[in-house]
């Protein structure tokens, strides 16, 4: 079974600074997706960024980018120019590539605080 | 992204009663729906996966007789917590996907969640 590990329960960053959230995963498959989701205090899950394992290029979405190291099974999220609205729980997630059994496996989450 | 709604957003019930939570995909047909449970300060734990018109597939350790899932149409799935007890108090989140398989672009969209408190 796939597992997703987030070793940082809490992180703090100053506004306008950069922060990196760590995620590692374990799988025997070669094709899969990796995601970062944001859960603000409203508890609505919001997709931040997605990475397909077959793509070597790291995904970027505006201020958010990932460092995907397939051999190391590492998938970190970098948030640049942090804003107060970035404060939330961040969950790393894994999903198999295809198949009816495809479902998300979440990590334990990292709570990000953004300070002035 | 696509919109998934849940109703109610918050419910309080007495121990021993049953509670139904609805999950609707508003602007797409959800072939597959997922139900998650989230305890305070914890991650989302998948309870079950349901495909429209089929019986739900429950994760190990989830009581299927206690958490009844119905996915009768392509836009509606319901989760009924039967004979609820205080330990069932939690945040329940549904998620919907347009396709059966998790192929490219076939993303899951999440509802806003339902907070259940059992007294």
C-alpha termini separation of chain A: 41 Å
Q: Give, in order, the helices and strands of chain A.
A: EEEEEEEEEEEE
Report the major sheet of chain A: 6 strands, mixed
Q: Outline the biggest β-sheet of chain B.
A: 7 strands, mixed
**How many whole angstroms does the radius of gyration of chain B measure?**
14 Å
Tally of alpha and pi helices of chain A: 0
Indicate the proportion of strand residues of chain A: over 45%
- Strand percentage of chain B, roughly? over 45%
Helix proportion of residues of chain A, in percent?
Answer: under 10%
Give me the secondary-structure category of chain B: mainly beta
Q: Write down the overall geometry of chain A.
A: globular
Question: How would you describe this structure in keywords?
Answer:
heterodimer; A: 116 residues; mainly beta; 6-stranded mixed β-sheet; 4-stranded antiparallel β-sheet; 12 strands; 53% strand; B: 119 residues; 7-stranded mixed β-sheet; 0% helix; 51% strand; globular
Describe, in plain words, how this protein is organized in 3D.
The complex is a heterodimer of chains A (116) and B (119). By secondary structure, chain A is mainly β. Chain A is 0% helix and 53% strand. In chain B, the strands form 2 sheets. In chain B, strands 2, 4, 5, 6, 9, 10 and 11 form a 7-stranded mixed β-sheet that branches. In chain B, strands 1-3-8-7 form a 4-stranded antiparallel β-sheet, with no helix packed on it. The radius of gyration of chain B is 14 Å and the shape is globular. The termini of chain B are far apart. At the A-B interface, strand 6, strand 10 and strand 11 of A face strand 4, strand 5 and strand 9 of B.
């Amino acid at each position: 079974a796939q597992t997703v590990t987030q070793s940082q329960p809490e992180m703090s960053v100053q506004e306008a600074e950069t922060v990196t959230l760590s995620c590692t995963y374990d799988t025997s498959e070669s094709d899969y997706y990796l995601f970062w989701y944001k859960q603000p205090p409203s508890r609505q899950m919001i997709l931040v960024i997605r990475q397909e394992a077959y793509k070597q290029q790291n995904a970027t979405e505006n201020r958010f980018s990932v460092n995907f190291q397939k051999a190391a099974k590492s998938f970190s999220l970098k948030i640049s120019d942090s804003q107060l609205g970035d404060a939330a729980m961040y969950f790393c997630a894994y999903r198999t590539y295809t198949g009816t059994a495809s479902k998300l496996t979440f990590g334990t989450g990292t709570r990000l605080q953004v300070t002035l | 992204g696509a919109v998934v709604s849940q109703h109610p957003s918050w419910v309080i019930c007495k121990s021993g009663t049953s509670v139904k939570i609805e999950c609707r995909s508003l602007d797409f047909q959800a072939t597959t729906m997922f139900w998650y449970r989230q305890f305070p300060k914890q991650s989302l734990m998948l309870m079950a996966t349901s495909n429209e018109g089929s019986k739900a597939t429950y994760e190990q350790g989830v009581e299927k007789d206690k958490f009844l899932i119905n996915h009768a149409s392509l836009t509606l799935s319901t989760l009924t917590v039967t004979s609820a007890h205080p330990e069932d108090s939690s945040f329940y989140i549904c998620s919907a996907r347009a396709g059966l398989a998790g192929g490219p672009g076939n993303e899951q969209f999440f509802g806003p969640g339902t907070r259940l408190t059992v007294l």
